[in-house]
Amino acid sequence: MQRRGKLFISLVLALTLLSACKKVKSDPELEKLIKAIPDNCDYDIKYAMVKYGTCKNKETDKVSDWIKANGMMKTLSTCAVLFNSEDSKTASLAAHVLYRNVKDNLQGIADAPQSLDTKIVELLMEGLKKNQTYFAFYGSQAIAKLATIKGIENKFYEIIEAHPESVVKKEGYRYIMQFGRLKTFPKIKELAGKDKDLKLVALSAPRNMYKYTQEEETQVCDWVQGFLQDSDEYVSAEAAKTLATRCKGKYIDEFLKEAEKRASEGKLKAPFSWALTSFTFSCKSFLGSPPTGTEEQCKKKEELKAKITK
Q: How many domains does the structure of the chain reveal?
């Protein structure tokens, strides 16, 4: 009896979601533009990618222009419908648009989350669950951000945990902090206690969160600093890169102290040294923002860069 009750509840929930998703509408004009891509461009379904320069009539540009003119809401609802298509090519095209046109353009929605219907995000997540193939990866970043904006990240976690493509899980978790911020931090800390790949994702995730508050810096940077001396060179390197790019003051000092220790042992090399070169604190103002490193820290960085070994 108990089992039958659970099955009934599951059925009710599934029917409720199906009913809600039917209300999400695809814009016919945008859908037509998107579906024209594989007919006129060299399109790879698995990698949701158009080979550069192969479109006959600038099909991808037409999609981009339409989105700029008509906004993100119609784009998201159209992508949600197409991402749930039974045709894999159509679903892949939705992932292509999510990756190319959506994932980096969600700040406006984050600033006004009430403007986005939760049903659209739920339908996108259903598509992620439905598409058990590699191209789902290209939709996972945008969907991670949207799920956290709408506060339904727990359902998102369930879906990516069950996905057969590990890249979907890793990409999804890597971006939950951008808009989820500290509410997603417990999940990030949980991931760090799992396998190495997820630990690396967890330590990189704070780099996708910007403009830390004092509380965020204290909680995140204190935690990341705990991995700075990890025995695994890639784990310690991820910690170093996050400290160098998202933390300031004493945290940069601790990173430089560890780099100095490695230099004295002749062990200052990649991947740890990337935090002194490619992923590092700024020493010059940029677009009106002041340097994140002090004059003394910047001087020390230059000295240490000269000590990097191969």
A: 2
